[in-house]
Amino acid sequence: MKLMIAIVQDEDASRLVNELMSEGFTVTKLATTGGFLRAGNTTLLLGVNDDKLQSAMDIIEKVCKSRRHVAPQMPAMASAMAGMYSAQPVEVSVGGATVFVLSVDQFIKM
């Protein structure tokens, strides 16, 4: 058995949970924040049998596509103090998923 920890963008979370559940996976959803844009993320926890691991990964890959997003530029402290702040937005890649797969030594459901 494996524990999958999938960190996805909030925009993809609901659709991903629905897709996983429709395929018989049980999912625990946690609201998290982090990353470069300090935007809302969702962390999903899935207990998956070894033979279903690739199926879960395929669903995550299908739903969580990377896309481009224009964000305001965050000035570095030194350049902001020197008055060299540029208000030019920057284009960054968002979406996709970060997935950790851990081996589970023991699983107990009470």
Written description of the protein model:
The protein is built from 3 helices and 6 strands. It is of the alpha+beta class. It is elongated and about 55 Å long.
What is the rounded Rg? 18 Å
Coarse structural class = alpha+beta
The averaged pLDDT comes out at 82
Assembly context of the chains: single chain
The profile of the biggest β sheet is: 4 strands, antiparallel
Shape: elongated
Strand content: 35-45%
Q: Distance between termini? A: 17 Å
Could you estimate the helical fraction of the residues in percent?
25-40%
Find the count of extended strands (DSSP E, 2+ residues).
6
- Low-pLDDT ranges: none
How many helical stretches?
3
Write the H/E string, N to C: EHEEHEHEE
Strand order of the largest sheet: 2-3-1-6
